[in-house]
Amino acid sequence: MPSRKFADGEVVMGRWPGSVLYYEVQVTSYDDVSHLYTVKYKDGTELALKESDIKSQSSFKHRKGQSSSSSPSRRSSSRSRSRSRSPGRPAKGRRRSASQSREHKEDKKKTIQETSIALPVLVLFKPSENNTKRYNGEPESTEKNATSCIILEQKLKPDLEMKRVLEQYSLRSRKDDKKKEEIYSEKKTFVAVKPIEKVSTKTKEMEFGGRIGTFMLILFLPATVFYLLSMCKQDDPSLLNFPPLPALESLWDWRVFGVILLWFFLQAAFYLLPIGKVVEGLPLSSGRKLQYRINGFYAFILTAAAIGVLLYFEFELHYLYDHLMQFAVSAAAFSLALSVYLYVRSLKAPEDELAPGGNSGYFIYDFFTGHELNPRIGSFDLKYFCELRPGLIGWVVINLAMLLAEMKIHNLSVPSLSMILVNSFQLLYVVDALWNEEAVLTTMDITHDGFGFMLAFGDLVWVPFVYSLQAFYLVGHPTTITWPVAAAITALNCFGYYIFRSANSQKNNFRRNPADPKLANLKFIPTATGKGLLVTGWWGFVRHPNYLGDIIMALAWSLPCGFNHILPYFYVIYFICLLVHREARDEHHCKQKYGLAWERYCQRVPYRIFPYIY
């Protein structure tokens, strides 16, 4: 067994992962199995380093002494040569000194060239503002290491380094300023054109059962939607009481399809309005950042105003209830046509614009998961638009139609308490999503998943027609609840919403600005990617607290429907299955991305979604 080189408690210099910079650290422990040293930085950050990434302080002091001793000798030599030349010497002496001067100038030019070649290498590792935050373990320690980082930045600046070299060799250019600008621009060009290895974006691991699984899902998902809607129409919506198959001609109506198209393009028109701020998304693999207009909440207000006008002119909104199956079929047909368009256009997309999870080379798999990451028509981002606008706002409109249908069918002057709770809870969820629209830019749907059948069908069909299942169920199966029960269900929904919103806010704010003073109380584990893994707040309670809040809210949405049938609780069961799948997917993705840091995070936060259970 190899013996360890550094003892516990010894102060050494440790290299920060992913950089060439060394910091003063203290050895705290050594693992005989992995042969890794656990070291502690001055700001309290603990990392596991290999022995090759650790050096003794004496080696750094020795190098510093050598570099400092070499400069004076060169400067004195230069000064002695300049003093030895005299204008009173004979011509021969002048010629000899001229030749020596030419040789000396050539030596100096060679030295400058060598320096200018070496300097860009240093510039490539120049710590940026973000890197400085990354090197400092926790947000509150940013000021602690600011001085050392500023010194490093000053040492690595090419213009200051060139000035030092020119002063050292007593060079005075005829056109000083012009040459400095040319030298500096050449260095910047050298850094900019430095070749970067192109990483293959081919999908190596397929999800959802691969090609066969995705093919089955393309058939299974629409069938599930039609089955659930048919069940809600029955007097006995038990799972074993299969509804009769409807006639094919009853499933299609061109007027309904026209309404679907009108709805989609109306929301697109609201999206294109020059209102709301424009923000940048997270960096793509190429380093480019796309711009997005944040005006979903304004679109919701405009839609509400349009619906109000229709109701004022006595438009029968419960028409949606009578033809809900036809609307679902038309929406499914539109999402399928959109998916075909998305796949065809993705075949001409550049390699760096393809989705990392939808570039397998197999048609059916890439068609389902999405081949292109951010398909756009000009500045119109199709995936971002469909993520929140037509489906989420359509969900609220369908719920309102169910409320009006209940009042008309059962001759009610006011909606039932159960219907009011379902509409209110889900309205809060949609308004929250649109109000915090910018947060969706950090989700995996936007940053990782391509736009294909999975998201197109999910956004345009599954969300509005399955998420409104409870309201649709209550129209045909009214349920009476008391005020104390309603109060308890409301408290449960508020608790789930609080977890959901506060957890998402912590994550989104930390991703965008880890140095925000408002987040100074949050602790995190630094990773080699430059990002941190939160270990306090909700993210120190379970690994996916936002999923926990989602499940609690889903249960609160179903409870007003009573316990006569399990159908209203399909959404809860589906949501648990979906989030468990997403959680497993996130676990795999994070393990590959963060490596040892993720293992440390899992040890620190052992529960995934449900505390003390899972």
UniProtKB/TrEMBL annotation:
**Keywords, sorted A to Z:** Cholesterol biosynthesis, Cholesterol metabolism, Cytoplasm, DNA-binding, Endoplasmic reticulum, Lipid biosynthesis, Lipid metabolism, Membrane, Nucleus, Oxidoreductase, Phosphoprotein, Receptor, Steroid biosynthesis, Steroid metabolism, Sterol biosynthesis, Sterol metabolism, Transmembrane, Transmembrane helix
Show the GO MF annotations: Delta14-sterol reductase activity; DNA binding
For this record, an example GO cellular component is: nuclear inner membrane
List compositional bias (Basic residues) regions by residue number.
76-97
Similarity-based family = Belongs to the ERG4/ERG24 family.
Where is it mostly found?
A: cytoplasm
**Low complexity composition bias: residue spans:** 66-75
Query: Which Pfam families does the annotation name?
Result: ERG4_ERG24, LBR_tudor
For the biological process aspect of GO, one term held by this record is:
cholesterol biosynthetic process
Question: What is the reaction catalyzed?
Answer: 4,4-dimethyl-8,14-cholestadien-3beta-ol + NADPH + H(+) = 4,4-dimethyl-5alpha-cholest-8-en-3beta-ol + NADP(+); 5alpha-cholest-8,14-dien-3beta-ol + NADPH + H(+) = 5alpha-cholest-8-en-3beta-ol + NADP(+); 4,4-dimethyl-5alpha-cholesta-8,24-dien-3beta-ol + NADP(+) = 4,4-dimethyl-5alpha-cholesta-8,14,24-trien-3beta-ol + NADPH + H(+)
Q: Which residues form the Tudor domain?
A: 4-62
Q: How does it sit in the membrane?
A: Multi-pass membrane protein
Its pathway is: Steroid biosynthesis; cholesterol biosynthesis
> What enzyme category does the UniProt record give?
oxidoreductase
Q: Which stretches are transmembrane? A: 212-231, 251-273, 294-313, 325-344, 455-475, 481-500, 521-542, 562-581
Instruction: Show the PANTHER family listed in the entry.
Output: DELTA(14)-STEROL REDUCTASE (PTHR21257), DELTA(14)-STEROL REDUCTASE LBR (PTHR21257:SF55)
Instruction: Give compartment(s).
Output: Cytoplasm; Endoplasmic reticulum membrane; Nucleus inner membrane
**InterPro entries, from UniProt?**
ERG24_DHCR-like, Lamin-B_rcpt_of_tudor, Sterol_reductase_CS, Tudor
Could you tell me what this protein is called? Answer: Delta(14)-sterol reductase LBR
The record's region (Disordered) falls at 54-112
* Family annotation (SMART domains): TUDOR
From start to end residue, where is composition biased (Basic and acidic residues)? Answer: 101-112
Gene encoding the protein: Lbr
Reported EC number(s) for this entry are 1.3.1.70
